[in-house]
Amino acid sequence: VIVVPVELGTRSYDVVIGGGARGLLRRLVAGTGAGRAVVVTQRSVEGWVRELDPGVPFDVELLDDGEAAKSLATIERLCRSFAASGLARSDVVVAVGGGVVTDVAGFAAATFHRGIAYVNVATSLLGQVDAAVGGKTGVNLPEGKNLVGVFWQPRAVLCDTDVLSTLPTREWACGRGEMAKYAFLGDEPPGASLAAMPLDEQVATCVRLKTSVVSADEREGAGRALLNYGHTLAHALEAASFDGGGDLRHGEAVAIGLVFAALLARRLGRIDDRRVDEHRAVVGAFGLPWALPAERRGQAEAERLVGFMARDKKAAHDLTFVLDGPGGVEVVHGVEPADVLATLAEMGGER
Length: 351
Ligand SMILES: NC(=O)c1ccc[n+]([C@@H]2O[C@H](COP(=O)([O-])OP(=O)(O)OC[C@H]3O[C@@H](n4cnc5c(N)ncnc54)[C@H](O)[C@@H]3O)[C@@H](O)[C@H]2O)c1
Fold this sequence. Notes:
This protein is 45% helix and 17% strand. It has helices at residues 25-32, 46-51, 72-85, 99-111, 125-131, 169-182, 193-196, 199-216, 222-225, 231-244, 250-267, 273-285, 299-311, 337-347; strands at residues 2-6, 13-17, 37-42, 58-63, 92-97, 117-122, 136-141, 144-151, 156-159, 321-323, 330-332. The strands form three sheets. It has a seven-stranded mixed β-sheet with strand order 1-2-9-6-5-3-4, with helices on both faces. A two-stranded antiparallel sheet has the order 7-8. Strand 1 and strand 2 (13-17) form a beta hairpin. Helix 3 (72-85) packs across helix 4 (99-111), helix 10 crosses helix 11 and helix 11 runs antiparallel to helix 12. The two termini are 39 Å apart.
């Protein structure tokens, strides 16, 4: 296995990556000193949960599948089940699942008894390279995604790559879109070499990049914003398909957003053609398409997308993008809508 430490002073912990890493759960739970556990999970991974051994008496709580489970109602239900199970302040929550489970279980753990320990066993690729690591927890409101939550770091994260063997194809694509983003981050971005690495190394490389950003910026200042590379258009595409038709998964939207960000950076004179091609090569190497979906093409759709981008919570009311440049990927404010519209028109020509 590969161990990636997350350095956060007294809140430091390890992310353990590799086939069979789930076998370490017993030791990690023992390390928390807990005498009891509640395992929060979903039906899709029940087979894996049956094999897990937390080493202490435990109950299992099943969440519904999908984003709908990320609600305050679920938090109440979970905290009541923790109470019914007799979880004390010194006990532990074990989240076994994708980003939905780790976000919800982490938030419940953060608030039950004003905060108890939790361990993440990330079972989706997106969870392993992103959601389970970094301590952001929370739920959605009808008014928006992830609007309520807290920063609460896990005691450990297990990224068992064997568990991915049951992950549906579309979920692989979702995780790969986030992976592609990491190819351009860091002091020495891995670029196209990322897609060529063995899976464990790929996951570890992404986790190292995420943890270096999180360690430098635990609570989302300028540094953590870089993790949103490719996400400004991605969020706009997701919002547009939510009320305007289309069927795009988050990672697929990020893949399109990465190539868009490269084309915009070229238009602004920040990078050259070769670097744009590298973006296409990385996204392609992860098996993802980057063409703008047919239903999002044309001037009227472009203007609608710009409207969504201006409302993106990271955009703080002017057009802000995370863009590549001579010094690497950075936050760029005050991008002209005309440049964004022209780049979207250019995107219409991408295959
Ligand atoms: N906290 C963070 O920093 C952070 C970062 C990125 C995303 N997120 C959140 O994560 C969520 C998305 O995560 P996700 O893509 O993992 O979605 P998810 O948790 O819904 O999992 C995707 C699907 O895969 C299934 N699944 C998971 N592991 C499986 C396995 N091993 N075998 C078979 N099926 C499996 C799930 O049941 C689900 O149907 C979103 O809610 C997003 O907001 C959080």
